[in-house]
Target: Diphosphomevalonate decarboxylase
Amino acid sequence: GSVENGSFTWSSPSNIALVKYWGKKENQIPENPSISFTLNDCKTTTKLSFSKKESKANFSFEVFLDEEKKDDFKPKIETFFKRIEAYLPFLKQYHFKIETSNTFPHSSGIASSASGMSALALCLMSVEKELVESVSDKLFIQKASFLARLGSGSACRSLEGDLVVWGKHDAIDGSSDLFGVKYPFEVHENFKNYQDTILLVDKGEKQVSSTVGHNLMHGHPFAQERFKQANKNLTDIISILKSGDLDRFIALVESEALTLHAMMMTSMPYFILMKPNTLEIINKIWAFRHNTGSKICFTLDAGANVHVLYPEIESEQVLEFIKSELVVYCQKGHYISDRIGFGAKLL
Ligand code: PMV
Model:
């Protein structure tokens, strides 16, 4: 390319899976399709500055988190650059400065890989667009999602909203193992502005990285049944999202969360990523639902934190319940109130 230097800034959100991705093949190809809500407030903002350099022998970049130099992030980004080099030929022609910040506290136990990798992938696509003649909007997002997937699988579901599917599924035309696509079907208004309050139960380092976790699905005794179940759950969620049947939604989403953890508990080696307070919260949620008829439910990612999902009309009563009964189980009483969002933005 002939551009000497410049910069782009993107903000990109986190996402929470309803049908979980757990298990992958070579090149970050998922073993089963997944679907997620895009979040609104939990996001990463990344500014990528680039300037032409002389030598094209190596990647050259520096990383800053909240204005602080972060050399410990470099290996992850180096790996990412190696994986995407074939698709972005300009990578070795520029020096990059990556300045990033998250709206949620670092080491809150909220994975920043989905928002972080998608924000970086989008910045890199903006550079590509500057160098290449024409990139349509559709191709831009598709390739950015493709690149984000190579950074962190679930990151490919963070670029758009409000529901994104990743992984080939028979019932969803255009779905692909290579990138996320916007959920193409009708969604009942019960799910409009759905709320997700994230209870920060444990902010410690993860006991098991998601890379190790995915790999433990190779040779896992229940792997094939699990992949079948995820496919079926994706089929089922299409009619649930259309009809607005919140009871079926709750059953599917909670079962997915517990199955994800069951896979970890039954791998070799095995892990328990829930904490006692995770279970306290789940039991309180079940009791509250039983006693009040609320449509509150929970989901989990690969950690101890609990995502509390509920319809917008219940916001007041559910937040009251969270404050009076669940916050005691959160580390330092910390929680984040989020909701469904609509994807990344160029700033
Ligand atoms: O994107 P990864 O490789 O960190 O995997 C994340 C997988 C889960 O968050 C546990 C589930 C999902 O689909 O997001």
The helical segments are 74-84, 113-131, 137-151, 210-215, 223-243, 246-265, 276-292, 315-326. The pocket of PMV is lined by residues 17, 20-22, 34, 113, 152-154, 210, 214, 260, 301-302 (CB under 6 Å). The mean pLDDT is 95.
